[in-house]
Amino acid sequence: MLVEATPTITIRELNHTLWQTFPGKPHVCNMTVSRALDGELITLKQAHNVSANRNSEDVKAARVAFAQYMYEGGIHQHRVYVDETGYNPYTCRTYGRAPRGQHVNRIVAGQRGSNVTLIAAISNLAGLFSYEIHVTSVTKEVLKNLMTSQDSVLGPEAAVILMDNAPCHAGIEQEFEDRVIKKLPPHSTLINPIENCFSFLKAIVKRQLNNIADRCDARAAHRHGVTCRMYQERLLQQVLRTAVPSIDATLCSANYQHFQTYLQRCIARKDIWD
To answer: Where is the Tc1-like transposase DDE domain positioned along the sequence (predicted)?
Structure first.
């Protein structure tokens, strides 16, 4: 199907291609083509960029190995997932409402400010049990400090620590040889429950930041005796600390259950796009 081969094709381009492919057929208008697509339940959606290696044979083989590990007993172990995610003071809703014919305009500062990074660990037994907020990006030293702090929480308990293949995670196994650390397959956020937790958290952060009217107000920053950039960073950290407890044991348990639905697809070596 032409739309499957070129999903970003426009209605006009599609209609023109139909004219060239079937010159003997009656010509139709663009609206007719659009209605025909609606009748086939084909709708216009936002296009997402996907890595070319997302469903390569190497990635599928790694997913098969991970799924087999889970079925052979990993699913019954105490699993701790560690990951990080970034936020910006202008992390906010991208849609709004306005009268027809008018734009939705949002007032922002001239600079977007620094990113704030949250690094966290969740457990299938305790939910979120460890997190740190950093204005700088997460480095290997930051990860090592978080892992060390987990020792006091986990103690001698046997737990498997799982993480993705981010650069700051490289070689972490050699730093903690007394811990069982397992890397997730590349391009496989679908089997990383903490990713869904971060998505849930980001929605809350967007909602709360949207209600702070003075986050780009230089006068508000001056009243607090700091620069506008520092004021934005403090607001974002405050919102994050308020929102982080929403990653509770119930949410983590639901995401742990949800990721298991992908294991059979991994075993079958299917292409996974969601």
So the answer is: 79-207
Beta carbons of 252 and 124 less than 8 angstroms apart = yes
| Residue 263, H or E segment | helix 263-267
Spans of all domains in the chain: 2-39, 57-92+111-267
Distance, CA of 116 to CA of 241 (rounded, Å): 12
The answer to whether residues 215 and 68 touch, using CB atoms and an 8 Å cutoff, is no
SS (H, E, C) 156-216: CCCCEEEECCCHHHCCHHHHCCCCEEEECCCCCHHHCHHHHHHHHHHHHHHHHHHCCCCCC
Distance CA 66, CA 260 (A): 11
CATH 3.20.20.220 for domain 57-92+111-267, yes or no, is: no
| Tens-digit pLDDT profile for residues 191-249 | 999 999 999 999 999 888 877 755 566 677 677 777 777 777 888 888 999 999 999 99
State the amino acid at position 214 in one-letter form: D
* 78 within 8 A of 124, measured Cβ to Cβ: yes
Q: Angle at which helices 228-243 and 193-210 pack, to 10 degrees?
A: 120
Cβ atoms 132, 142 nearer than 8 A:
yes
Q: Measured between alpha carbons, how far is 106 from 92 in angstroms, rounded to an integer? A: 10
Q: Which amino acid is at 139?
A: T
